[in-house]
Amino acid sequence: MTLVVVLLAFVTVPMSISGAAVALPGIGEDLHAAGAPLQWVMNAYNLTFASFTLVAGSAADLVGRRRTFVAGGAVFALGSLAAAAAPGIVLLDLARALSGIGAAGVFASGGAILATTFDGPARTRAFAALGSAAGVGLAVGPTLSGLLVGGLGWRATFGLHAVVLAVALAGAGHLAESRAERRPRLDVTGAVVFVAGLGALVLGSVQGPEWGWSSPGVVSLLVAGLGLLGYFGVLQSRSAAPLLDLTLVRNRRFLALCMVPVVATFGFVTLLTYLPTYLVGAGGFSPQRAGTVLLLMTAPVLLAPPLAGALANRGVSTRLLITVALAFFAGGNAWLTVLGPDTPVAVIAGPLLMTGLGAGMSFGVADGAAMSLVQPEQAGMATGFLNTMRIGSEAIVIAVYGAVLVSLISTRVGSHDLAARVAAGDLGGATSGTAAAGYTDALHTLLYATATVCALGTAAIALALAPPRGGPGTPVAAPSSAAPTSEDTRPPSKVA
Asked: Which intervals carry biased composition (Low complexity) (predicted)?
């Protein structure tokens, strides 16, 4: 029941990201909204989700992981209900921001609950299932939302999210409560500085394409964000009860595993976000056909995590599994440069399957390996930091990726405004063949750049995960305590 409750909630949180994107046209038409106010239906959720995840994780260690899970789920459901009933775009954006705060509580505490409930091979299987659940949410979200929008309207999409979370919370009584043995007060100052710093950084990245990257507003936000995050690090090094124990960050293997979702953002999430627009705009696909083609990339995300978990439990090195998975991102993105306006689906099936397999192999396995390196009393903090890296990188990288894509298209079609329309799938305003060719060439350049980033990330993570010089049997101290780990790590003791 613990696994069922947590997985049900984990399906809904990413579904709220991918599903809401499909509802945007209907929202804009119904609420007479466009441009930045409409886009903030997505941005508000991502901003608060990223900013509050670390705080929620540390709070879960102090006040209780089940309590934080229930509170986060309730806030998420309340925000979804408010979004479904919102009479205007401003209230809808505020409701989505509230849902993002609740999602942070669900993600940070849910992973910590699994880490402190399961041990050994069972933990590996549980986190593999968690990876599949996240994949289901991402993959099913657009299709399910499309059906709901077409049949019942866009409000039904947010209503469904509230209902699913309510069902999950109905089983929360089966979750065992756990918390850190030593429970100092929450570092409120650190929490405020971190939320403000990461929020400013994400906001600056999101508004960069809208305001211009060299505009005073964007530059001020980015500088303020980096400065506040630097100050946060200083505060944590001096705090007796830090929001983030810096010994976690200093553990090269834990930090390397936290970088896995960052590489996945570059290699997988960017394609999930921008490839459908290319297929519809330059390829002439219908939205339904583009969604079907995308199943080549999303289906492996549902199937591969259990396979990777089974291999890990049979003795296959998690380092090898993760390295191969990340290498698939590099290979898949480079291979996808065969894509063109008239390219048959059979030609791009290979790179899409490879990229999806990389995502499926890395989802869950990396999370489980990371959690096996930390002590039980830091489970919430560690999960919060891991998911902050995941969600924060998604918000920032997607915004930067889109801005670079528009810039590259602009150099090929000669107009920034036209490039923005082309990147959004509107190839009007120029000869269709010219716009499509410029779009394709720009996307190829970005795919090669992404493949390079993924290759470098793969090498760096593989190097950081290498066993100590004494060999695989040499113990490695886990953060803040003395629990030994082997090359593939052994989980700490279970906490009731």
From this structure: 470-486
